Amino acid sequence: MITSLINERLISLQLAASDKDGVFRELAARLAADGRINDIEQFVSDLWAREEIDNTGFEEGIALPHAKSAAVVKPAVAIGISRNGIDYGAQDGQPSRLFFMIASPANGANQHVEVLAELSSRLIETGFIERLLAAPSAAAAAALFYEAKAETTPARPADQGLLIGVTGCPTGVAHTYLAAEALEKAAAELGYAIKVETNGSIGVKNSPSSDEIARAKAVIVASDRQVDLLRFAGKPLLQTSVKAPIHDGKVVIEKALHAAAYQPDASEQQRQAKAQTGGMRGELYRVLMNGVSHMIPFVVTGGLLIALALAIGGDPTPNGMQIPEGSLWNQILNLGVVSFKLMIPILAGYIAYAIADRPALAPGLIGGWIANDGSFYGAAAGTGFIGAILAGLLVGYLVRWITARHYHKMLQPLVPILIAPITGSLFIAAMFIFVIGAPIADLMAAMNQMLVSLSGGSLVLLGIVLGGMAGFDMGGPVNKVAFLFSVGLIASGQTQFMGAMACAIPVAPLGMAMATTLGRKLNIFDGSELEAGKAAGAMGLVGISEGAIPFAARDPLAVIPANVLGSMVAAVMAFLFGITNSVAHGGPIVALLGAMNHPLLALLCMATGATVTGMTALALKKWRLQGSQALA
Q1: Fewest CB within 10 angstroms: 74, 93, 355, 537, which?
Q2: What range(s) does the PTS EIIC type-2 domain occupy (predicted)?
Q3: Is 503 a catalytic residue?
């Protein structure tokens, strides 16, 4: 199969380039001349995008630039030799001389990736690089790859026992297989048998059985990808980068043999249990986490900018917290608003991306924007993060189905850059405008009418309903109905509704800040959630309920009920204490600035609600974790 990827036309024994970009363009030109790519600029751009993930320069003067690109018509490997060497940014700091440029179709067949394993084995083979550098012609160099691989006899018999290896690089193309070959070669020289699982772009291959894991003397996880570690509990385990065994496989193996036995903590067990619950549920968890992880920086950045602007530059007015137009704090507020506008499309876009890769990103972002903008389908507010999740899932699975079809070779290059994105965008727009939008608008009208009918009844019942709506979707349509209903009654002098709403608004973010603080010792939140908890606390202080969205999107079954319960408690207490609020905003900042009639009681309502939310979230998460462990 390697003969279809490498030929003498793709080999340059004397590169003219003097820098990294020059190498990319010179080898890309050979690929284009051989009909392997149809857009040099696009392909070079994709190569640089891959370099931003991790430099592809290895030790001993070897570099493996590679990219999955829509510009690739047919997979290929271009080879170039720079006799003087260039500064490629290799890990050992030495100039790179030998370049293997791997061109992979964005959505083509995956057979070429398996050929990379053969290429990797060649690079590890003793004396191969020297023979390649000494080849007198491009034809002679190509012939080296066509030869049968030389059989090597291990320096020692494999009588020392069995090792398990796991390799994986961010793109799953080159480093994955080089690391696997390096481990196999080093293990053989040390007298060990080894089974190496590769986490490549074609999926997980050669996974060890439970019996093999039980017999293993040690486990080496040389991967920059997420790997299931629970199966290795109790075995000596070394975690390192995918480049480590390529640099010195023997040292890596020796470290693994002397490593401590792996003992997963509670958070790892919870994460792995969720990821392994099987089939669609496991994939759903994975894609949701991808969307949430990309959304968190937008939530934190936007929330903290808005919080800072309101806390320092804001004044309470009948129309809410206002910042003077044209002031510095108004500009900072606008920056935060931009970040908040982007966070919902980002959530949808990267959920879709996790399902169907790059072709799904644009329609996912577009779908998220439409979902969050009710004007597209005649609703007073968008669907918030719940609509974004729905949009991301619909787009992702549609685009994955589209890109998996077989197309004529003339159409294939257009699928990932034109056909799939346009079809996905039109589909999700039609779904929200003609199918999903009308029921949402009708539901919002019905909820508003329900609040009107309850407004003259029991304060406890009204507090339960109003508070529950405030905590349900944190800035989404249900929350917006309750907020707009309360704001509308301020003008008629009924400020007790906004008082209850103002106490319920900050409960979700403050509650999750409390939960992450208390839960740090319980190991039920990961590092990103702990950081998001700090930002949620700051947002809660200035009445930004969206600070809790990352937690609700990641674990809705635990977080949403906790948010709803705590918000209900705060709203009921506010009604019973007779708390009023004359401005269209909520949170402790409103009470402290004098917009509420009983500020200390208002703060008590907020603190009580946040405590209920925090403790409920901890209890539900702990219960779900124990259930997962019991099932395991």
Answers
A1: 93
A2: 284-619
A3: no
